[in-house]
Design a protein that fits this description.
Elements: H1 2-18, H2 20-28, H3 32-63, H4 70-95, H5 98-117, H6 121-141, H7 145-163, H8 168-189, H9 194-205, H10 210-215, H11 218-221, H12 232-242, H13 244-257, H14 262-278, H15 283-286, H16 289-292, H17 307-325, H18 331-349, H19 355-380, H20 407-417, E1 426-429, H21 436-441, H22 443-446, E2 451-457, H23 467-485, H24 503-521, E3 524-530, H25 534-540, H26 547-558, E4 562-568, H27 580-583, E5 588-591, H28 597-605, E6 614-615, H29 619-627, H30 631-647, E7 652-653, H31 655-668, H32 670-679, H33 683-694, H34 704-712, E8 716-719, E9 722-725, H35 728-737
């Protein structure tokens, strides 16, 4: 009975001294009553240890010639310490979480009695060093850390020194600190483990089962060894080399459960990874690289910064390599994509703490894939065309080489904002996918340097969150552009909280400062609101008010350094929710239409300087005819044509290639054609389009309003032989997708564009 009691008590005290992390985990799952019961049962054994430790401290003091007051320690201090330790432990157990509380209960119960017996001098320092040293491992994981324990103990010694006066107190304080530093260092760093650790390490070098020796080494005995154990990372690497799965499990265990040895675990982990990845010297092995990293848990705290990003990129590269190994239709295109991704990986990894390890590997893989590309090119005798065309997304300023033409719009802009004698808002009008956003995004490269374009995309929901948020985002957009361009320096960026009350007043005050700096720099800001129609949704939903429009009108009329340009696919009179003309008086409309023939030809024949695709005679003319030089369709057909030629390992486009590319574009551009048909046209207008697609013509006097509307939208044009669809590809799409529907009841002929 007594033996079982002592065994259980010593078990809890062993966990307290050597495995506080395990003790926390066990304590978390115990009810508070059970945790307190464990404390009360263990306290007598802890108190017995106090007696033994107190006697040992007294004997040690006597041996080194320091007087030890045995009477005071055992009669007064020990009895008081018993009461204080028991009561203090119970209080802590009631207010602290069970896991940590159980640890603190046992440590306090052991230490408070000693502290009460040895309030000063060397003995007190030894006791406090023991207390903070034991708690160091646990407290470091709780945010207090070793430094906190060290400072706390030194602070206690200083207080004791001040209490005993300037002469005696200094002596007591120094004695306290000496004892404290000795025991604190002893129990935190635990250097007595050095010898058994080294013995087990050396034995494992020749052992048939090194894992058994590792699990019987101090790193498994004690959870809070603070001293860096020599050769630990090398030992872990050898374990992984002996048995990869078991070795990685040991690395993960040490990293997760031995926080003070985490650096050694990280170093071992990187060494294992590097050794594996250095063996990758072919596309086939690269395809298996993702498997090498699956053993590591996702987003583990012990992984070094940048490791997760490297893992994701390597897994993506491995998948590309696997697809290449199964011989894709366009192997050259896939290799070029891998080269691009490897270049991005090399650049990104260089900025992380593991860059020194991963950068050489990325560099070697890049050279390996480039060599594979050269071999493939030699076998094919063909250099794939790099596809420069961008179909769907707006061209921003870094795609400037692809942006062609629009000189008429730039001239009109300059005439209306630079040489204008009258303040006016501007409306850049054009149908969907005609290139409005691309034009606005490329203004920095096109317009006079006297103007600083500020691009605002009203499709973003943040512009419809309320009047205050609209004003804040407008101020922030102006600030961001001016700051990035380094043309003007505001003292501070606008703060969102400043616009919660009286947003229009705050905006006016902010723009006063903006205009002052613009005047000093001799500049003006051109604020462009793209997709301006989106503001109607916010007004209709009640999230923003028409007061925003009044504010914009005020900016147009009274801000000399600010010019407002609205862009959209509707004229003011076409919108019904807001009477825009009432707010933006004297607005000048600039119409964006199809590209000029020479601009469209330049886009197709020389989109970028290094473009190596050629056309047979008549192919480019046919592209311009089919698309009517519509920018989006030119990009879409060009992109499909490049893909078609790369698939066939040729660089010269024939009429047959164009036919195949147009077929694919009618599918890939389905959303554009459907929007034009369903959203931009009324039922009567769709009937007109169906008649024109069938070549039936329009009888004189019928559906005149619908025809006029289609002419304004540039969906229909009038030629020498009558009305026709402006874009021939749209006619083909109607014949393939709409003629014969139940609402039209017609037979559709097979479209021919050859």
């Amino acid at each position: 009975m007594i033996r079982a009691y002592l065994k259980e008590s010593l078990h809890w005290l062993r966990l307290t001294f050597f495995k506080p992390v395990t003790l926390v985990v066990e304590g978390i799952w115990r009810p508070k009553r059970q945790a307190l019961a464990i404390y009360l049962k263990t306290f007598p054994v802890a108190f017995l240890l106090i007696l033994i430790l107190l006697a040992a401290v007294g004997l040690a003091c006597e041996m080194v010639g320091v007087h030890f007051n045995w009477t005071k320690a055992f009669r007064g201090g020990l009895a008081g310490g018993l009461v204080v330790g028991l009561a203090g432990g119970l209080v802590v157990g009631l207010v602290v979480s069970l896991g940590v509380g159980l640890v603190i209960l046992l440590v306090l119960g052991l230490v408070i009695g000693l502290v009460s017996s040895l309030v000063l001098g060397l003995g007190g320092g030894l006791v406090f060093g023991l207390y903070f040293g034991l708690g160091g491992g646990l407290l470091s994981s709780r945010g207090i850390g070793l430094a906190g324990g060290l400072v706390s103990g030194l602070g206690v010694g200083l207080v004791f020194g001040l209490y005993f006066g300037p002469v005696e107190g200094l002596s007591e304080m120094l004695r306290f600190w000496a004892g404290y530093l000795i025991t604190f260092s002893l129990f935190v760093f635990r250097p007595f483990y050095l010898a058994p650790h080294l013995v087990q390490y050396w034995r494992s070098n020749a052992a048939r089962n090194p894992f058994a020796l590792f699990r019987n080494s101090p790193i498994h005995w004690d959870e809070v060894i603070g001293m860096p154990l020599p050769f630990l990372s090398r030992w872990l690497v050898k374990l992984a080399q002996t048995d990869r799965e078991l070795g990685l499990a040991e690395i993960s265990y040490i990293a997760a459960n031995r926080p003070r040895q985490g650096r050694a675990a990280q170093k071992a982990l990187l060494a294992v990874v590097m050794d594996d990845l250095r063996q990758v010297d072919s596309i086939g092995k690269l395809a298996q690289a993702g498997e090498l990293l699956k053993a590591f848990p996702a987003e583990a705290k012990y992984l070094p910064a940048g490791f997760d990003e490297a893992r994701l990129r390597i897994s993506s590269l491995a998948e590309d390599a696997r697809l290449y190994e199964i011989r894709p239709v366009s192997p050259m295109t896939m290799l070029q994509a891998m080269i691009k991704d490897l270049g991005a990986f090399r650049t990104a990894i260089a900025q992380t703490p593991i860059g020194a390890d991963f950068y050489p590997i990325a560099e070697r893989w890049l050279e390996m894939v480039k060599a594979e590309e050269e071999k493939l090119r030699g076998r094919l005798g063909f250099t794939p065309i790099k596809n420069p065309f961008i179909a769907g997304n707006a061209l921003n300023d870094r795609d400037g080489e692809l942006f062609k033409g629009r000189r008429d719009i730039i001239r009109a802009l300059e005439e209306n904002i630079i040489h204008s004698q009258q303040r006016a808002a501007l409306l850049l009008y054009g149908r969907r996918r005609i290139g409005k956003s691309s034009t606005l995004l490329n203004l920095p490269n096109l317009i006079s340097a006297a103007y600083i374009p500020v691009y605002i995309d009203l499709q973003e929901g943040k512009w419809r969150e309320g009047d205050g948020m609209f004003c804040y985002h407008l101020a922030e957009a102006v600030y961001s552009e001016l700051f990035q361009a380094a043309r003007s320096r505001m003292s501070e960026p606008p703060s969102e909280s400043e616009f919660e009350q009286r947003p229009f007043t705050r905006l006016a005050e902010y723009l006063d400062k903006v205009e002052d700096r613009l005047r000093r720099a001799g500049k003006q800001a051109l604020i462009t609101f793209d997709e301006y129609e989106r503001m109607e949704a916010g007004i209709e939903g009640g999230r923003i008010t028409t007061e925003v429009l009044n504010q914009l009108r005020h900016l147009v009329q009274h801000r000399q350094s600010l010019v407002l340009l609205f862009s959209g696919s509707h004229r003011f009179e076409e919108l019904k929710t807001v009477k825009w003309a009432d707010y933006l008086i004297n607005t000048k409309t600039l119409e964006l239409s199809f590209l000029e023939p020479e601009e469209a030809r330049e886009l197709m024949e020389r989109p970028v300087p290094e473009f190596n695709m050629r056309y047979e005679p008549g192919v480019v003319d046919k592209i311009l005819e089919l698309t009517h030089r519509q920018p989006y369709l030119l990009q879409a057909v060009g992109s499909e044509l490049v893909n078609q030629l790369n698939t066939r390992n040729r660089t010269t486009a024939t009429m047959d290639d164009l036919n195949a590319a147009v077929e694919k574009t009618l599918v890939s551009a389905q959303a554009y054609f459907h929007y034009t048909w369903a959203d931009e046209c009324s039922n009567e207008e769709r009937e007109v389009l169906a008649d024109l697609a069938l070549g039936a013509g329009i009888k004189k006097g019928r559906r005149r309003a619908a025809v006029q509307s289609l002419l304004r939208k540039e969906i229909v044009e009038k030629g020498q032989s009558g009305y026709r669809l402006s874009v021939e590809m749209f006619r083909f799409w109607i014949l393939k997708n709409q003629i014969g529907n139940d609402d039209l009841r017609r037979e559709a002929p097979v479209p021919v564009w050859k």
